[in-house]
């Protein structure tokens, strides 16, 4: 994994060359993330519907779920939720049993990519613990909903296998075509970006007054 004699970078459609083992924030582009996540399937593609349920759509679901959290007043927290699986535009979405089989090296690569993504978009390299916990709760709820609504799990098996103990909201899920998921992801990113800009302007306005 750490043999630097072999190629460890990938060329993105943006033209960027991303070093997978030592990623730099300057080589990360939103367009590459949105494109990649819109084409990466959750559940190894084993879901109902004409299209795969993409990581981009999953990321939007998680972002919707965290809006109920008290932390959602901070738009950077919402951005962290939207980007919580952004590393998968490079690594793809390995199902949990396979991650365990691959071992700890995968988690190291994932962590470095995630940190680079955070730095690129103005988030802390390492998120506050409270943010991580809230996003993890929403991520688990999203996984449970996907399992029972799309992946063929019964509610009982979904709770038992995924260890879900919460009260899931009543939602419907319909997998989108990749181009729709990509556009929705970019739209949400832009909307959150506007919220961040507005929040950042408030202190300066107050000081001038």
TrEMBL record:
<dbReference type="Pfam" id="PF12917">
    <property type="entry name" value="YfbR-like"/>
</dbReference>
<protein>
    <recommendedName>
        <fullName>HD/PDEase domain-containing protein</fullName>
    </recommendedName>
</protein>
């Amino acid at each position: 994994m750490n043999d630097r004699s072999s190629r460890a970078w990938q060329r993105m459609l943006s033209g960027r060359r991303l070093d997978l083992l030592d990623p730099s924030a300057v080589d990360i582009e939103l367009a590459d993330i949105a494109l990649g996540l819109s084409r990466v399937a959750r559940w190894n593609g084993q879901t109902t519907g004409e299209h795969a349920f993409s990581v981009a759509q999953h990321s939007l679901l998680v972002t919707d779920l965290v809006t109920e959290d008290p932390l959602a007043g901070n738009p950077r927290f919402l951005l962290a939720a939207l980007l919580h699986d952004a590393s998968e535009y490079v690594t793809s979405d390995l199902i949990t049993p396979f991650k365990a089989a691959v071992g700890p090296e995968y988690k190291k690569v994932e962590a470095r990519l995630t940190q680079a993504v955070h730095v690129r978009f103005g988030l802390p390299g390492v998120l506050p613990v409270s943010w991580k916990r809230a996003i993890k709760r929403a991520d688990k709820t999203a996984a449970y909903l996907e399992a029972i609504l799309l992946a063929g799990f019964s509610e009982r098996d979904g709770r038992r296998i995924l260890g879900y103990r919460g009260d899931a909201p009543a939602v419907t899920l319909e997998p989108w075509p990749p181009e729709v998921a990509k556009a929705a992801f970019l739209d949400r990113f832009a909307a959150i970006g506007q919220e961040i800009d507005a929040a950042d302007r408030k202190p300066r306005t107050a000081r001038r007054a």
